[in-house]
Automatic annotation (TrEMBL):
<protein>
    <submittedName>
        <fullName>Uncharacterized protein</fullName>
    </submittedName>
</protein>
<dbReference type="InterPro" id="IPR035897">
    <property type="entry name" value="Toll_tir_struct_dom_sf"/>
</dbReference>
Length: 190
């Protein structure tokens, strides 16, 4: 009888310990998410052709307004023209959104594509400094006044992104942000 009671007590203690651990980890995760939201963890860099800086700045402003409306997160906005040589130069914060415009137009478009590829590679290699590359096409935005990812055949072939409606695109970005955020919170809890 005593052996039975002892086994029950040990089992009960184990269950309670596991429950408390799970609760603690969940609370810590929730705190991490809240902390990230409240401390402006997102930086947005716009890579643009310096000859068309005004248009590109307007593109970024439209994106930021829509982003903040969708996600309720503030963006620290930074403008960078094509004199930037390397994506590593601006990967300084935990969450960085890299936006390039006029993706395939002439030499500037080729440079932007290079930056975009660097951003993707950096994001894969450094998960604790996550870069989220986004491509916006200025002509589409001028026509619709709504930011879109620009999907040309070459980009789709290289990166496998899907075409979709505006809402599909923002939903996809939402999944990416939540995945990155979860990863960062996992890293911070190690």
């Amino acid at each position: 009888m005593e052996l039975y009671l002892g086994a029950v007590a040990i089992f009960t203690i184990a269950i309670v310990t596991v429950a408390i651990t799970i609760w603690f980890l969940w609370k810590r995760r929730m705190w991490c998410f809240k902390h990230m939201k409240n401390n402006d963890m997102f930086d947005a860099y716009l890579i643009y052709d310096s000859k068309d800086g005004k248009t590109s700045k307007w593109v970024l402003e439209e994106f930021v307004k829509t982003f903040e409306k969708h996600f309720k997160w503030k963006l620290n906005v930074n403008l960078r023209d094509t004199r930037f040589k390397n994506v590593h130069d601006f990967a300084k914060t935990h969450m960085t959104i890299v936006i390039v415009t006029q993706m395939m137009l002439g030499p500037a478009g080729e440079y932007n594509l290079k930056i975009f590829q660097q951003a993707l590679e950096y994001s894969r290699m450094h998960p604790n400094y996550s870069i989220i590359p986004i491509v916006l096409d200025t002509d589409e935005i001028k026509m619709t006044a709504y930011p879109k990812w620009h999907h040309l055949g070459e980009i789709m072939t290289m990166f496998g992104y899907m075409k979709g409606s505006d809402e599909d695109i923002w939903n996809r970005l939402n999944v990416i942000l939540k995945t990155k955020q979860k990863l960062l919170c996992d890293i911070s809890n190690v």
